[in-house]
Amino acid sequence: MKFASSYEPGEYESDIYGAWEASDIFAPPVPTVPVDNNGDGKDDRDNKNTYSIVMPPPNANGNLHIGHGLTIAVEDSLIRYHRLKGNSTWYIPGADHAGFETWVVYERNLEKQGHTRFEYDRNELYARVWDFVAEQRGNMELQLRALGASCSWDDLTFTLDENVIDRVYTTFEKMWNDGMIYRGEKLVNFCPKHQTAFADIEVEHKDEKGTLWDIAYTYDGGEIIVSTTRPETLFGDAAVAVNPEDERYKDLIGKTVHLPLANKEIPIIADEHADPEYGTGAVKITPAHDFDDFEVGERHNLERIKVISENGTMINVPEKYYGLTTAECRKQVLKDLKAADLFRGEKQLVHSVAHCYKCGTVLEPMLKEQWFVDVEKLASVAIKHLEQNEIKFHPANKQKVLINYLKNLKDWNISRQIPWGIAIPMFRRVTDAATDEPDWIFDRRTHLKEIEVGGTKYVRDEDTFDTWFSSSHWPIVCTDWTEDNFNPYYPLNVMETGADILFAWVARMIMMGLYVTGEVPFKEVYLHGLVLDAHGQKMSKSKGNVINPMDLVAKYGSDAFRLGILRGRSAGMNQAFSENSVIAGRNLCNKLWNIARLIQSTVDDSNETLENVHQRPCATNEERRSEVPPVTTGRNERVVDESFSTPYSTLNMGEDWICREINDCLNQVESSMKNYRFAEAIEVLYQTIWDKYADWFLESQKIFKNTGLLKQTLETILIALHPFAPFVTEAIWQNLSWTDGFIATAKWPNKLKFDPISAAEFEGLISVVSEVRGTLQALPGTNNAKKYSLLYGNDSLVEDNLMLIRTLTKVPAINSLDGQPRGLRLALANHELYLDVPEKVVTEYKDALTEKILSVGRELDALNARMMNPNYVNKAPEHLVKETKDQIKEKESLISRLKTQLDLI
RNA sequence: GGGUUGUUAGCUCAGUUGGCUAGAGCGUCUCGUUUACACCGAGAAGGUCGGGGGUUCGAGCCCCUCACAACCCACCA
To answer: Which pLDDT value is given to residue A864?
Structure first.
């Protein structure tokens, strides 16, 4: 016996993954490179049947977190589903050099060893981090395997692979030639700790309490009071601005004021930026250290005086303040202002402050020369394609959100002062001699610090690319898209990633895809939300509520994790997650395992051969001995389906019914997958497998053993569940005696053939059995099922299914009612059935019966009220009206029978 | 200030164009160890679908409005 009594995922998962990988079944059947079979120089591949997804690359030297777990569950379910559907699926795995993240870790290590980055040059640092990453690498890839990701490992792309860098340089060169790249001295968000600039999108704004100080700037015959949260920057002030409409200051515009603590006069200018309602209505302008002031400065051509250095100390200030940190300087300035009697008060306020998203340090707006991408053209092209609905979004509203973002996009700072990344391929001219040579030239030889072109020397810019600049090429580089060849895997079928990086990544992939290839990079976008903890709180180390996916995989199995994390989750929503849903998944896997175990043992017992499949299978000995006639549903021919590997026929209504239910289930799974409703697909599979297949069909098969159908239906539900629970379904498939190959590469099942009339009749049996069970439990006393037998009047459904009803209800006997009715009549409209209970019990049941009559009466009243409404009868669809009429009839007949029963008591 | 989403059972969530008595998992309660499964089986309790108004024969779903919650963008001298 291969099937143990419970499914232990740990015993199977790694072997199964190993077997899949060894058989190379995850490589796409349609080649990923051009193929010319007939030598006509043309690519002979077609893309009718391809399905491609690129994995958002997890950090190469990190561990997977819960979000990765969700990503893989979603992507791999899609991939496996489409593989079963017969597509040539290509799931391309990736690994991210994670520029900034990895750099932070590496630099921390350096510091621990008592070194700093400044001891090494850029090339040395790059080589050192490369080795560091190489040492750490591998865990993440093992974890992807543990999650069951059926990706094509040979095609793994690392974000620093040569082809990636090549492609990035090609794009950059094209942009440079197209005039979309410029070097600008602009204010950037600068982290004094990490010594690098960030893009706007990487900045984390937090509300903080601060102080607003009022300072007097004097002029001949008066003073103007400005409010500031940053008094230390006053040495960088280039003007004081007032609103042109502000009557209070109209006469002062154009005059100069004395800059406190500095021997300097600055002008009073008129600018809309000054809000008359705020503070005194006058504001100091520091173009080099404030984003708004920078813009004011541009409008008025003001001097940009840099008073804070990149390591956060004061420069270009009077001797006294030089070299102080900003905090020290602020203290000193305030003290000196008070001493000079220029301090005019202070108040507390809450304002948002920019922080480094990694270390939390307050970011300093810093004047720097950086490379910028002019995004106007990129964004407008992207907007055009988005507005033409070339990409379908899940959830749909994100399309609008994205367009809105692109409409307000500012130029993109792509320079980062971090050694770990792709070097910017730009070189600056060093010779002083006056020359016509350009200041900057593009060159791919970034491994060199210095190059010579046409006798002129150039040195490389030390900076590296913002990682989003290179990752915006991800669909292009992973699929090996080229200008020259048709690529059946590009655009991708779907891009799946977190909703939190819609702007940072998805937007940029779309812009870059269009710029480089002229096509949108993917046809659909599925965005998942954050995985929150069980109480709906964001997971964080500091809260201690982080759930590690690998712990859950180890504890409950990979399938249980996948089922659990997809359950109850819909696109774009931040949703809670708890171990309970994983436990439910584990239980389903075990249930399925035991279903297979039961069927395999049935198959083993039957000694079945193909020849006797079409004959009616053996009933149990008990049934044969009984005098009950064979099961019939009144029809002469049975449905026989030979289109399956194991031909089967349906022989009774339970069998027809389960075929119908499985077909419904397949339809619902198919439509759910089309609409990315994974939770719904899992839900319907769960219900079908557990509540229908196991609880009704398999129970009924304890009497009728139709091995052909058992095999066929089991294969069907296994394949249907495989996309979500790949391991347990494969483990079962490998253990079954009659299956071949891998379930992972099986064919998605055809619909089962069945007799619909017979299938519907089984529902009558379900309601009979349910009513018997419910009534037995409601009766006083315990173990009622063993005590009371069932009596039936003129009822063919019951008469034809005595054995089955007995098995399902556990009643000791079912007898034909001879003569006077006795016992308790069951509340079934279309069946004459009695539980053979003593008068005393019936009497005790009186209250319940009365309540039942009342509740049916209430239902009847509601239905009657509906029919009394002429508008309903006239306007509602006919079938609904007819349905209501039928229901009224049924309820009326039921209520009269129950009343008769009550009268008898 | 602009935008997005949400509010349905004790908890976490479904509920597709309006249409039978609003569903599931987990939890709770009762009963049951019957040879696939106690990671089980049978049964049950639990909901004025955030409040108010409107449209409709009919609203959890559509419209208006209010409240509360979460998130994003911008601004914050």
So the answer is: 84
Distance A72 CA to B12 C1' (A): 22
H or E element: which one contains A118? Answer: none
Is-contact A242 A281, C-beta < 8 A? Answer: yes
Residue A212, nucleotide of least CA–C1' distance: B77
* E-state strands within A411-529: 412-413, 415-416, 426-429, 440-442, 450-453, 456-460, 464-465, 492-498, 522-528
Angle at Cα A301 formed by Cα A295 and Cα A303, nearest 5°? 90
Nucleotide whose C1' lies closest to the alpha carbon of residue A538 = B70
Residues A33 and A480: beta-carbon distance below 8 Å? yes
Q: Which nucleotide is nearest to A693 (CA to C1')?
A: B36
Please tell me the distance from the alpha carbon of residue A405 to that of residue A387, in angstroms, as a whole number.
13
Distance measured from the CA of protein residue A572 to the C1' of nucleotide B38, in angstroms = 38
pLDDT for the residue numbered A639:
64
Question: Nearest residue to nucleotide B2 when comparing alpha carbons to its C1'?
Answer: A404
A92 close to A52: Cβ distance less than 8 angstroms: yes
According to the model, what pLDDT value does residue A199 have? 77
* Length A350 CA → B2 C1' (Å): 20
Nearest CA among A17, A461, A463 for reference residue A198: A463
Give how far Cα A543 sits from Cα of A80, A461, A537, Å: 36, 42, 9
For position A642, what pLDDT does the model report? 63
In this complex, which residue's CA is closest to the C1' atom of nucleotide B6? A573
* Closest-approach nucleotide to residue A809, Cα vs C1': B42
Q: For residue A874, give the nucleotide whose C1' atom is nearest its CA.
A: B57
Residue nearest to nucleotide B76 (CA to C1'): A351
- Nearest nt (C1') from A280 Cα: B77
Protein contacts on strand B: list nucleotides below 7 Å from a Cβ: 3-6, 11-16, 19-21, 24-26, 30-32, 34, 36-44, 56-58, 70-77
- What is the crossing angle of helices A878-904 and A846-868, to 10°? 150
Nucleotide nearest to A591 (CA to C1'): B37
Residue nearest to nucleotide B30 (CA to C1'): A777
pLDDT tens readout for residues A690-703: 999 999 999 999 88
The owner of tokens 């009326």 is A892
CA to C1' distance (Å), from A425 to B77: 40
User: Which residue's CA shows the smallest distance to C1' of B26?
Assistant: A580
pLDDT of residue A127: 92
Burial A657-694 (b: 16+ CB within 10 A, else e): bbbbbbbebbebbeebbeebbbbbbbbbbbebbeebbb
Q: Which of A406, A3, A442 lies closest to A182, judged by CA?
A: A442
Q: Which residue positions in chain A have pLDDT lower than 70?
A: 1, 47, 433-434, 607-646, 904-905
- Structure confidence at residue A636 (pLDDT): 39
Closest by CA position to A653, among listed A630, A633, A635:
A633
- B73: residue with closest CA to C1': A405
| Euclidean distance between CA atoms A329 and A318, whole angstroms | 11
A370 by Cβ neighbours in 10 Å (0-12 / 13-18 / 19+) ranks as buried
The pLDDT, as a whole number, for residue A638 is: 58
Cβ atoms of A191 and A368 within 8 Å: the answer is no
The pLDDT value recorded for residue A226 is 92
- Give the full edge-to-edge strand order of the sheet including A440-442: A440-442, A426-429, A456-460, A450-453
Run of H or E including A354:
strand A343-356
For the CA of A855 and the C1' of B20, the distance in angstroms is 16
Of A369, A357, A351, A364, the C-alpha closest to A325 is A364
pTM of the model: 0.91
Separation of CA A850 from chain center? 52
Distance, in Å, from the CA atom of A430 to the CA atom of A596, rounded to the nearest integer, reads 75
